[in-house]
Design brief:
4 copies of one chain form a homotetramer. By secondary structure, chain A is an alpha+beta fold. Chain A has helices spanning 21-31, 59-62, 65-70, 116-125, 135-145, 151-160, 203-209, 246-251, 263-277, 293-303, 331-334, 341-344, 360-371, 403-406, 409-416, 426-432, 441-444, and strands at residues 11-16, 39-45, 50-56, 75-81, 96-100, 103-113, 164-171, 176-180, 189-192, 197-200, 212-216, 222-226, 229-233, 257-258, 261-262, 284-287, 311-313, 337-339, 348-353, 376-381, 420-423. The first copy, chain A, folds into 2 domains: 11-242, Aminohydrolase, N-terminal nucleophile (Ntn) domain (Glutamine Phosphoribosylpyrophosphate, subunit 1, domain 1), CATH 3.60.20.10; 261-314 and 328-444, Rossmann fold (3-Layer(aba) Sandwich), CATH 3.40.50. In chain A, the strands form 5 sheets. A 7-stranded antiparallel sheet of chain A has the order 3-2-4-1-10-9-11, covered by helices on one side. In chain A, strands 5-6-7-8-12-13 form a 6-stranded antiparallel sheet, with helices on one face. In chain A, helix 4 packs across helix 5. The first copy, chain A, is elongated, with a radius of gyration of 22 Å.
């Protein structure tokens, strides 16, 4: 349960060739709601004009049946925005829709452009006007100013100027274009509809609307869907893919398939491996819901220690809670989690969470469990210590806020007041996720998408 | 996962003697949100006037910090209303606040008055005017018209005229009164605040705000909380308590203690007992989330068959989803649940749910799992066949809608298309819940609160 | 321009026998908007149920086309509520709709019941429950409790218990009933629709919807409109009618006909008479818009002094204006009125207003005109000094707030800083209004509807 | 009363050097509400960032006290947008706020750029991205792309590329810039605040907030207000000013001073002149309120025929009115105007309006008056026949919709069914407005701001 924001994630969906394109995108965004709850938008093309609707909050609250009906057209793209503390102005909600020389375009992306600020500075210097703080606008400006007549060529030339991690959807009047960056950091899935195609961040969206899974868009691939069918290009220099390991650890839904692996299975394996690497003598093993549940099942199976749902989550979480002035212990975490005293009392407890960011929430959980009567608390984490910021988002903690960047495991254990603390080894993690290389920059500081400089401690606008 | 409405449930909370009474009631209602999502209200007394705020939707959406701040006073009561299809007019949202001879009163109740219609008819005949279709208004009318000067006497005399199941909170300018009906059908808990007291439906509310659990209000007990302290009366003829067994099966949160038993433990025992009574040869046992999870853990532990989270719930459920005209298979259930194919595929699966109402949802779940690749599906239910309507609510299914009222187990199995179907025995159920007698009317038609007539097939306004 | 509230006024409209009853009532209320801007409601009967819609603000903002469409039925009544500072809770917005023994009823009234508090006290003592602070609820309670089976008889018996001034609309499932109190204080007009009838406060409503004027409902008359046609009763003791003179002075629209006289003509005559009684040597005569314009035209015609629109009104008045801390002179009045300096400068000015309540606004107007360069300011008022509160409303000024209750004309002149001040004589006023007796209680303290006691300084809930 | 849209008008206001800048701009926009009711926006600079708030509807509805308070800064500009049928999307509401090379800028303008489409096409071709259909965005693009480092130079160079009529406010972090086009078509007024300056469209805004009138900004003048004081430039080629005569006829409030003349006095003279040029034998002269009132007073004074307010305006006009299917005669005009039958009946009536656009409203007024009993109707118009579209706005009627473009006076008279019809002579009009040359393009087709081509029948995006 990441209460502290760490990575910036978003969800995207695009439909081509289906009369109810807006509705299918709407349902897709709904199933991808876990990737972003701050706001959402849908843009449709009726082959003549592009219209859009955006709003703040949850997909199901933003779009009424009337609004969906009004979005006529057989092409649509949509976007879920991650909740951020900062600039949550509606103008930053995607898709970003503008008129350029080539006609109307809408763009939505998941990820971030590492050199966006630099490119933006250059563009502004040359007279560009920016209306949002979204990277999408940078991409559109490059396309608009490329001076290349052919739109596809223009997009390719523009993307070549960008470094970063992105899964991008771009819609013109009559084309739906999907691109995944050469490193393939963020997922993008291609599905088949009865008369058309669909591009989405995770397979759960296909499940909900009954679309058929075709394949993942490959790292560095661009697909162009139009009335002529699907065309696939590989316009970028080939690189070793580095998908984001955190998709498996936390972001993706357990019922999704991502980077060729079922998230559920990966998490199970992570839990099993954690039990092998970081065993503990205990009566019960308790997940931090919801993200920790599947891994905890693996831990329990491997260790033979029974799993108990010793922390119950309240799913009706709202925006504002006023802590009474006669302050309530553990208020910040209690508003989301409540321990089951009868389960915890007198027990030696292993707690399994997906990660530790600032450590403050883990500390509250430990203290709350201790107060509920736990005799011992052994904190286990399904990932290595998070030492480096992800350069994927506004408002992610800077290095100094990440407890593991300046504290060793024993110091962290003391801070969170657990009896023992154990992390999953970084190499095992990759094995659990199916082998191959992943972007593990948040653990080891090795940022694959930054060819030039290591960046330093400077989180960037994204998603 | 009861998608079909069956019982009507609500949550209540009352605070006395705390400067931030409205905020504590607000937090209590938030933690009791699972008992009602249609609407909520809070009334406060500043010892002079009673003011209130009500709204439709979730507690956290209705009450802003400003609204809570404006509800000044050291006494407050609040109410969560269950989602109903029918008369969801704001005037039916409780607390019901009026001026009577004795001054301003606010009333909120969980439960229903079986003879409310009859009493109301009599009152209207004698010139009473009704503004809502809430039973609370009936209670207030009886009090207002009792002709008894002493308010407590008047309340007692009024409640004696009523048959039914209720946990009732009544607030005057300077008293907070809690009453539980003689059968004790609905729970009501007493807690201690630093300088005051709190009455709530479930102990989770005490957990959140850090109140100390004192005890449950006894069946037939009336507590009067005022500046003079707590007074306890037992003004009704003593009856054998009949708490509602469905509180343990489905309504209450697993981290609550109710009727003297931890819900978590009860559900575990139900699952274990179900495994003994209704075994099945299978590879995995899968809960229908969220209500079935704890029982499924019991089933897994007892049977040794590994539990897998083979159905993932989407928690961002909104109000309106338009099914595309190119219709989506299992749309109604898929909007809430998605099978994890990698877990289900090729497996013999035991599915554990808390109950079967109409059978249509169970059927959709079975078919969806079959499509996900399950080889066999053994449906197990932690309660006996639900044959009779609960006379506790608007819009509960009438008898003929309850599949078990007209079909035997084999017929139901065929309908839901499972390979086998097994229910928990009614007597075991009571044992799991800690022994003692419970209201099991929905299983056996024996309505304890209806002394006079059996009622027939006529669901009633409640909560 | 009465900025200070003085009388409480409302508008009512009822339609029988027209498929689009709600729409016609909506348009009627819109044309009667000047009689109340706080809130409005419409109730319809589809001959089976009564449904309603209410809201705060202006008619055109409350009712969307969708809402009007949803109010199906061929009978409707509606109500405009006057803006008050006090209890503007939505539950006080009429029509008041309840279920009584005789079935569903909706009631809306313009006026006030002088003995409402006393009757209410008695009713509450006998067990009645009140949900609003509206007099309408008192009327309904009396009807519900009359013990008389025949509804019409019951209404008559109930109204006989009430003293006061009212024009009342009452709707059952299949009857529309209009009643005017025996003194006929408030207007009520009967009109003909193609297939039905309409009852409204002023003839402007008939003009807008193209209904034919039939006649005014007589003082003490009750009309019962049903499928059987119109029945007229005179169930009350006959009294000398005392229509409210302020309807002509200020309330009614100048294009209405009221109490048998065109308001426009009456105001013209008042202005002419004022010029005769209160002449002044001046260059121009300037109306305080909008209410003073027609009378000023009369003053100008009679005196030969040219009328100039020396004060321009801003019609886009909103609810909240924050006066900057670097305070603005005359801010309170300037937000509504602006002097035309080129017209005022160097001139001897006669200002004509309809009445003076607290005197504070008149004082601001005089000072603002003086600052705009007026050489002399002669304030003329189309009515006598307002010395007594009108017992027709919440929040009207009490006696001591009425400047004329404690100051003579010369003292008022000094307060408002005018060079001269002149009022219209009370007897002339009645002549201008067409002769006959009027209620002039606000001028002479003679309250015709209070048979028993003079009341004292105790403004009452009304409208 | 122009019910048909004809010219596009807007209101602007800018404040420099006053702590409550947003509030003063808010009050200014409120007093300029007659210039635009579709939407409004306010941008403030706190010398570091520019923030803004925009909304649809009336100023007093868009901005709550909270919103105004949140707009901190001692500089602000604001804009009222005229109500249009077309693209009323919120992104077209001004001020237009962006980040350019020179930093953040906000821009608001009243008027239109005749060659905006052409310039925009060129910009888009060179890679510019447009987010709105507002001319303001074109201006900002030119500035951003000028390649000139000095912002003032850059603005001047950009404006030199534009042809059209505009009064422009531009705000940077620390400068407030006001520009009036070389022809001075739209007004712009400079006022003095205690510690700062204010620029507004009309003097009424100064009156409300108690600012001191300094002078009008001259045609072709640019003023730069900063902490260094006011600087005045005249960077454009000098032209003969051509202020818009319609400001005096209709747009401006009668209590404003504009182009050196009091609007009130100008309208009086127009009415007098109309009486001389277009006399008629009649009993009464009736204004079409509100715009026709002052001129009608002049007509009445000159002719000696008494003025009567024979048409009463409803000021509570909302957005949507559903005409009942049993259609109402003259519904469209009756929703705004109602004849006073007692005044009209049996009379020979002169009706005075400011202009005739399509003729349909005039026709409805004549028919409505005829039905109210007028014996003769002599229609008089305070301006010449409107034959040409104003190239100042979206959605103005094209030539063929202007009745006078294709019909002579006698034909128009027949269409509106008046007994006689008379217009004011074009030369007299200029005299009434104080002499000098005006833009009279809507009467004679001579468009002063179009140096190159006459344009044809192609109304343009503006304001």
């Amino acid at each position: 349960m990441i209460l502290d924001k760490f990575h910036e994630e978003c969800g995207v969906a695009g439909v081509f060739g289906c009369k109810e394109a807006a509705n299918l995108v709407y349902l897709s965004l709904y199933s991808l709601q876990h990737r972003g709850q701050e706001g959402a938008g849908i843009a449709v093309s009726d082959r003549d004009k592009i219209r859009y609707e955006k709003g703040q909050g949850l997909v199901a609250d933003i779009f009424s049946a009337d609004k969906i009906d009004a979005l006529e057209g057989d092409m649509a793209i949509g976007h879920n925005r991650y909740s951020t503390a900062g600039e949550s102005h509606i103008r930053n909600i995607q898709p970003f829709c503008v008129e350029i020389n080539a006609g109307p375009v809408a763009i939505a992306h998941n990820g971030n452009i590492v050199n966006a600020d630099e490119v933006k500075r250059q563009l502004v210097k040359n007279g560009a006007i920016f209306n949002s703080s979204s990277d999408s606008e940078v991409i559109v400006h490059l396309i608009a100013k490329s001076g290349i007549d052919n739109l596809i060529e223009s997009i390719i030339a523009s993307l070549r100027k960008l470094q970063g991690a992105y899964s991008l959807l771009l819609m013109t009047k009559d084309m739906l274009i999907g691109v995944r960056d050469p490193l393939g950091v963020r997922p993008l899935i291609l599905g088949k509809l009865v008369n058309g195609y669909i591009l989405v961040s995770e397979t759960v969206a296909l499940d909900l609307i009954g679309a058929e899974f075709i394949r993942e868009i490959e790292p560095g691939e661009m697909v162009i869907i139009s009335d002529k069918g699907i065309e696939s290009l590989h316009p970028f220099d080939k690189k070793t893919p580095k998908p984001c390991i955190f998709e498996h650890i936390y972001f993706a839904r357990p019922d999704s398939m991502i980077f060729g692996e079922n998230v559920y299975d990966v998490r199970k394996r992570m839990g099993r491996m954690l039990a092998i690497q970081q065993p503990a003598e205990a009566d019960i093993v308790v997940p931090v819901p919801d993200s920790g549940i599947i891994a905890t099942m693996g831990y329990s199976e491997q260790s033979g220690i029974p799993l108990e749902m010793g922390l119950i989550r309240n799913h009706y979480v709202g925006r504002t809670f006023i802590e009474p002035s006669q302050s309530i212990r553990h208020f910040g975490v209690k508003i989301k989690l409540n321990p089951v005293k009868s389960v915890i009392k007198g027990k030696k407890v292993i707690v399994v969470d997906d990660s530790i960011v600032r450590g403050t929430t883990s500390r509250k959980i430990v203290k709350m469990l201790r107060e509920a009567g736990a005799r011992e608390i052994h904190f286990r984490v399904c990932s290595p210590p998070t030492k480096f910021p992800c350069f994927y988002g506004i408002d992610t903690p800077t290095r100094k806020e990440l407890i593991a960047s300046s504290h060793n495991v024993e110091e962290i254990r003391k801070f969170i007041t657990a009896d023992t603390l154990g992390y999953l080894d970084i190499n095992c993690l990759e094995e659990c996720a199916g082998g191959g290389e992943f972007c593990k920059a948040c653990f080891n500081g090795d940022y694959p998408m930054m060819s030039l400089d290591g960046g330093g401690d400077n989180p960037k606008s994204g998603c």
